[in-house]
Amino acid sequence: MDLFVVGDVHGCLHTFKELLDQHWKPDEERLIQLGDLIDRGNDTPGTLLFAKQLKQRHGANVVFLKGNHEYEFEQHIVNGPNEYWLPQCGYDTLNQLRAAEMELQEVSDWIGELPLLWENEHVLISHAGIAEKAEFPLDEANEIGVLWNRTPLRNVGKLQIIGHTPCKSGYPEYEKASHSWNVDTGAYRKVALSAIRVTSRGEVLEIVQSAVDPRDVSEQD
């Protein structure tokens, strides 16, 4: 089964739905969203509910990975006020969830079950990638772990697909040394939401984008 890997959504529900409606082939492809589903955009609650519906409908053929924004939300609920996350986007996200009457603990529990990566023999997908110098890449608090890394990636002998750092070009970018694609193109910055279609052997078939729906990002963002 081919893979359809979607970059950072950041609460841009209408854009996410349009991308899937126009480009995803659910009968032929496994959907993998590589984290940062929440925060920044106008509809974190709707995006979470949509993600849960996709999982219920398609089971193992839909995978949502944890990103650093999911981690920050979980830390806020589990360990008390997250003073790093709150002023960045946390207050807005909490207000959205409360207005939608969503239980914060239930959201945190769902996030806590998200995997950090998906891989097979030829492809490895995570939010921020396996860093060249990371000794403990799966430590969620590690600043160069798979949730946070912004340093050069390690060539792991298979194709890496990541997000986390918006591509300056506004288009997914390939890095030859690490054999990796970054597909975060800054949806919350009103640039685009991107996805890459690859075979299970890591062969790139297509790159697609959807322009950001103006309903998804407020003018002040």
Which features would summarize this protein structure in a list?
221 residues; five-stranded mixed β-sheet; alpha/beta; Purple Acid Phosphatase, chain A, domain 2
Provide a descriptive summary of the structure in words.
With 221 residues, this protein is an alpha/beta fold. The chain has one domain: 4-Layer Sandwich (Purple Acid Phosphatase, chain A, domain 2), CATH 3.60.21. It has helices at 13-23, 44-58, 68-79, 85-99, 104-112, and strands at 2-6, 29-33, 62-64, 117-119, 123-126, 159-162, 173-175, 180-182, 193-198, 204-210. The strands form two sheets. Strands 3-2-1-9-10 form a five-stranded mixed sheet. Strand 7 (173-175) and strand 8 (180-182) form a beta hairpin. Helix 3 crosses helix 5 (104-112).
Set down the secondary structure blueprint.
Blueprint: E1 2-6, H1 13-23, E2 29-33, H2 44-58, E3 62-64, H3 68-79, H4 85-99, H5 104-112, E4 117-119, E5 123-126, E6 159-162, E7 173-175, E8 180-182, E9 193-198, E10 204-210
Helix pairs in contact: 3-5
Summarize the structure.
The chain has about 220 residues and is α/β, with parallel strands linked by helices.
Estimate the global geometry from the Cα principal axes: globular
**What is the helical fraction, as a range of percent?**
25-40%
The total of helices stands at: 5
Helix/strand/pairing class, anyone?
alpha/beta
Domain count, please report it.
Answer: 1
Name the CATH architecture.
4-Layer Sandwich
Strand order of the largest sheet: 3-2-1-9-10
Approximate strand percentage: 15-25%
What is the level 1 CATH name?
Alpha Beta
List low-pLDDT spans.
none
The helix/strand series, from N terminus to C terminus, equals EHEHEHHHEEEEEEE
Q: Report the biggest beta sheet as strand number plus sense, adding barrel if it closes.
A: 5 strands, mixed
Mean pLDDT: 97
How far from one another are the termini? 38 Å
Determine the CATH superfamily. Answer: Metallo-dependent phosphatases
Gyration radius, rounded: 16 Å
